[in-house]
Amino acid sequence: MAVVGVALSDCGRVADTTPYALHAQAARRALADAGLDRSLVDGFASAGLGTLAPVEVADYLGLRPTWVDSTSVGGSTWEVMAAHAADAIAAGHANAVLLVYGSTARADIRAGRRTGTFAFGGRGPLQFEVPYGHTLVAKYAMAARRHMLRFGTTIEQLAEVAVQARANAALNPEAMFRDPVTVDDVLSGPMIADPFTKLHCCIRSDGGAAVLLAAEEYVRDCRTAPVWILGTGEHVSHASMSEWEDFTVSPAAVGGRSAFARAGVRPDEMDFAEIYDAFTYMTLVTLEDLGFCAKGEGGAFVEKGRLRVAGGELPVNTDGGGLSAQHPGMRGLFLLVEAVRQLRGEAGERQVRRADGGLPRLGVASGTGGWFCSSGTVVLGRE
Q1: Where are its TM segments located (predicted)?
Q2: Which of 38, 184, 248, 326 is the residue whose CA sits 20 to 30 A from 63?
Q3: Handedness of CA 150, 155, 277, 267 (dihedral sign)
């Protein structure tokens, strides 16, 4: 099965619309990108909006799907949904599946319709953590501090992740923040949760994205060249921090290994990686767990510009990522959109090139959910 259409809605500062409208805008653009009619869509996946997601969103879009998925595992939702959709298409349960997401997180806070989300509530296992002020960012910060203590990872190395994400964003006209930053800029910012200063943390934006997957028989009718899903993997590891066996190992260590094995490829064959980066530590530890470097060597790996589109050995988050491009909530679908654009050669100034000057052949998108609770990894290729 192949990805035949991808698109973003308007992103960044979008104050005059609704999340439903962003879903619709992204969906229309993805269908136009593929050149397929809406009537062919018989599968639909959405999460994060409405009381009965994806029923409400499908209804808003005028769709009546016969296959649906509302899996919600945080930022990795969309990689997991892509895996489920690929399986459904392979089994003949659907012909064309639309994945779509939209959020006005930034606009809602500005307008006073909601407050900043620092925790996921106080029910279930979380009731034992919330009373102590253990917010979402604090969980990631504690995990980062553990990695620093065990392996000698430095705050400067973590800052390099933000610096290089911003360098990639500078090449992306759709990125929300494009001005360059330095390691000193990152380190001197206001403290959010030790050791994270502001620039160690993702931005908050509005925006939406959509991805259309279709069975092979529809590929010849599409406007664009297909990008094939070669292998997927998913894993959930814990609900509370007390049940997380090792703060320095993310669930991508399991899900990523499965994805590469099912695709029949190795991490060192990837031309680029799109990695969920709500915080700088997420990028670093996911690189380790996907097998791009050994455990504990992520700090050294991210140094010397390795993650940059321009001259980097492994371009990572080529659009600027959640640290600089856009982050309207569950950003996993944006990883898939960027991966497809890179494989098609549609990324403009930020286009990744192989050593011979050719377009990339293989890429990986790896999403993370919760506080490293879940992971979904998708290996994609254009051949």
Answers
A1: none
A2: 326
A3: negative
